[in-house]
Every structure is written in C-alpha cells, then in structure tokens.
Design goal:
Helix content: 40-55%
Largest sheet: 8 strands, mixed
Number of helices: 15
Low-confidence stretches: 28-77, 452-462
Mean pLDDT: 84
Strand order of the largest sheet: 8-7-9-10-11-14-15-16
Number of strands: 16
Distance between the termini: 139 Å
Shape: elongated
Structural class: alpha/beta
Length: 462
C-alpha cells in the first residue's frame, strides 16, 4: 500500500510537470530544442537504498528538471530598449553671402572729424541692413564696411580706389573731397563699381559721363549761385575778395561764386589763393585789407577757415566772412572761437531738422546718442549706403553689373528726402541752405530748392 501510494503521488506530480511543460512549449516553441536537450540530459542515478525506486526517480527528476528549465527559459524577457536616439543635429545654417561696401574719406589729419562723420553714417546704414536680414538670390546677406583713409590727398585717391576694388567691394560711398572723388571715379568706372558721393560738390564729378558716378547733394554751380545771389541781394555788397585753397572743391566753388557776383555787378577786388594745410594767412590778409572789401569769401574747409577768420579779426578786418559747406560745421565755431559770431556759410542740402522724412529725427537721435554731434555729411552718407543696398534688393543681386541699372532709375525715400538721379547722376531734388553763427551756434537763415530750374527757388525762410 505504501509503495502504491508513493507510486501514485510520483505519477501525479509527473503529470502536473508534463502539463506545465507542454503549456510552456506551446507558449515558447523555440524552447523545444532546449527541452529535448534537457530530457536527454545524462542520467546520474541517485544512490537510493530502496530497491526498484531508482527507475521511478529518473523520469520524475528529468521531467521535472525539463519543466523547470522550460518555465524558467520561457519567462517573458523584453528585448533591451534601444538606446535613446541622440537629438537631431540642427539643420545647417543657410549660406551667408558677405557683401562689402567701401568708404573713402580723410580719417586722419585736420578734417578727419568730417571724414569720420561720413564713415559713421555708412556704418549705421550697414547695421540697419544687417538687422533686416536681407536676402539676395536666395542667400542671406551680411554687409560689411571697408573704410579707407585717403587723407583728402588727390595723389592717394587712385591707389585707395584700387585697394577697395581689390577688396571686392560691391560699391563705394565717397570720396569726401572733390579732389579725391574725381580721380578715383575713373578707377571705379573702369571696374564697373558704383560710387555715390554724399559730399563732393565739384560739377566735374558727374560731367565725365561715368554711369557709375552718382551724387546726393547739390553741386557747386547751384551752391555758388545761391551764395552769389545772397551777396548781391541780401548783403548788397559791391566789393568782394575771394580766396581759395587750390583744391578741386575750394577753387571750384570760389570760381562759381565769382561768376555769380560778377554777373550781378559786384567788383572782385582781390583773388588770392593758399593751401588746404596752411595756418598763417596774415600776409595775404594784409594785402586784402588794403583793398577794402565788404565781403571775403573763402573756398576751403573749416580747418583753414577758422584760423583765417581769427586772424582777420585780429588785423581789424570787419568784412563779412563767408564759406561754403566745407566751413559749415560745428568744428568751424571751435576753430574760430568768438570770431565766428556773424560768420555765414552754405550747405548743399537740408538741415537735418528740416528734412521731410520721418526717419530724420530718428537718425539724428540715434547718431547723437551713439557718436555725438553730427558734423556735416553723415545723413547723406547714410542715405548713400542705404540707396545702394535698396538697388541691390530690387536687382536681387549684389553684382554691380546687375544692380547699377536699378540704382540709376531708383526712387527711394531716405533720411534726407526723396532720392532720384538725373541722366548725369546728380540728385534731382537738390537744396542749398544758408546759416549764420550766433552765440556759438549755426542758425538757419533759409533753404533754397534747385528742383525746377537752375535758379534757386525759395521754399523756406526764417
């Protein structure tokens, strides 16, 4: 009985193992080989003392072991999670095309303050263009300023122009002085590089027939006419002495003033010349004093005009002293000191306070906050660079051959007003303003427009 009970219990346990094994194999068919291997595991007989039990223990142990192995092996083991994907690399930045804008002016020497003033105007225009994120030909563009110091020296102008061309500039703002602008214009024309001057007034610049030469301010024919008419009609002078510094600008403007006053019946009692670097004018002024002029006009810059005016007053010369735009700067007041009171000068453009554009006040406030007082030409230099960039946008290219035609026919609302060019490259809407120094400040007398005819048309009076 006891043996039978043991046998029954053995078979019952075996049956349960077999059933569990079968279920495991059904769930995990891949384990059939392993289970078979387990069933065929070498038999190592246990050393039992009871006879005939050895035969019964082997299948029970083998089947049990196989079932255990199968069940263990068939536990659900999820495959290891794939490694976390590294964050996708950012898309490559779109290609950026660098477009260089050249600038040339005297950045050192006695009129560096005027050259730096112009340079800062171009710098602000380039900063604004880069903020806009302009694209040309499907590429984002970054504008860069390449500024060169020509020292106001005509003998350096051609070399500076070639240096800018070699730097692959797409256009040039400058030069500042007519004496450097005119010889440089030949080089730019030969290379097909657009050149916009916001300061050079000698008419020759745009009379050479170069399609690349453009000007943003009135020329000396217009400026000289306004000055001459003021001398005749407002000062009612009959005798005038004229001095020039023998530069293209100074001599050119003096020649135009002389033509205008002679046409009005004024006598030129003396025509003297000096240089743009001279500082001692006493001998020349003594000769002029003996001629008793009512007006002395100096074609030159503030660096010579200031000392000349001081020496005039020291010699007791009471004649009205006048200059063109080269002396119409805050620095002139500093050079001349108290002698500057009553000084009269012209500027071939609008005062920034009278510029019709809403941008003018913004430009003035921004410029003065960043750089200090505007000297003279910075609004025009700003517009020169801005209108050049606007033409590139119209052409969708910074290639001078492609955007120059757009520049020649553009209509652009700038800081200084509406910009359009005539067939020669002169701005169509020219202005000339006259100022008088009172209490150390340049006060506007009036502004004249040159739009409708060669004769100045009065549009504003103080």
């Amino acid at each position: 009985m006891r043996f039978n009970a043991i046998l029954r219990i053995g078979y019952e346990r075996t049956s349960r193992f077999v059933l569990r094994l079968a279920g495991a194999l059904l769930r995990c068919p891949s384990l059939i080989w392993n289970s078979q291997t387990a069933l065929r595991a070498p038999r190592i007989a246990s050393r039992q003392t009871c006879p005939n039990r050895e035969v019964l223990s082997y299948p029970i142990l083998s089947v049990a072991l196989a079932a255990t192995l199968a069940l263990s092996a068939c536990r659900r083991i999820d495959p290891p999670a794939p490694p976390e994907a590294e964050p996708a690399a950012p898309a490559p930045a779109p290609p950026v095309e660098v477009v260089r804008i050249g600038h040339a002016a005297p950045l050192t020497g006695p009129v560096a303050h005027v050259g730096r003033d112009s340079e800062k105007g171009v710098w602000l225009a380039i900063e604004d263009a880069n903020i806009k994120g302009i694209q040309l030909g499907g590429k984002k563009v970054k504008f860069e300023l390449v500024s060169e110091d020509d020292k106001g020296d005509p003998s350096l102008a051609v070399g500076i122009a070639q240096k800018l061309i070699d730097a692959k500039v797409a256009g040039v703002v400058g030069h500042l002085n007519s004496g450097t602008t005119i010889p440089a214009s030949k080089v730019y024309s030969a290379a097909g590089i657009p050149q916009i001057s916001g300061s050079s007034t000698n008419p020759t610049y745009t009379q050479q027939g170069f399609k690349t030469a453009l000007r943003l301010i009135a020329n000396d024919i217009q400026q000289g006419s306004v000055l001459g008419n003021f001398i005749i009609n407002d000062l009612r002078a009959k005798r005038i002495a004229i001095i020039d510094d023998r530069t293209s600008y100074g001599q050119g403007l003096a020649d135009e003033v002389e033509k205008a006053v002679k046409a009005g019946g004024v006598t030129v009692v003396a025509r003297e010349f000096t240089s743009d670097t001279a500082t001692d004018f006493k001998a020349m002024l003594k000769r002029i004093k003996a001629k008793k002029p009512e007006v002395i006009f100096h074609g030159g810059l503030d660096a010579t005009g200031g000392p000349m005016l001081k020496q005039m007053r020291a010699l007791g010369i009471k004649a009205q002293f006048m200059q063109g735009d080269g002396g119409c700067t805050p620095q002139m007041v500093r050079f001349a000191g108290d002698a500057s009171n009553g000084f009269i000068c012209s500027n071939p453009g609008l005062p920034i306070e009278s510029m019709p554009s809403a941008q003018a006040k913004i430009f003035k406030d921004r410029f003065e906050k960043k750089f200090g007082q505007i000297q003279l030409y910075s609004p025009y230099a700003y517009d020169a660079a801005s209108v050049m960039i606007a033409a590139m946008q119209k052409a969708n290219s910074a290639d001078p051959a492609k955007y120059l035609p757009e520049l020649r026919k553009i209509s652009y609302d700038g800081v200084t007003g509406k910009i359009e060019f005539d067939e020669k490259g002169d701005v169509k809407a020219g202005f000339v303003s006259l100022y008088e120094v009172q209490c150390g400040k340049l006060d506007l007398l009036f502004t004249l427009s040159t739009v409708e005819s060669s004769e100045a048309q009065a549009v504003m009076k103080k």
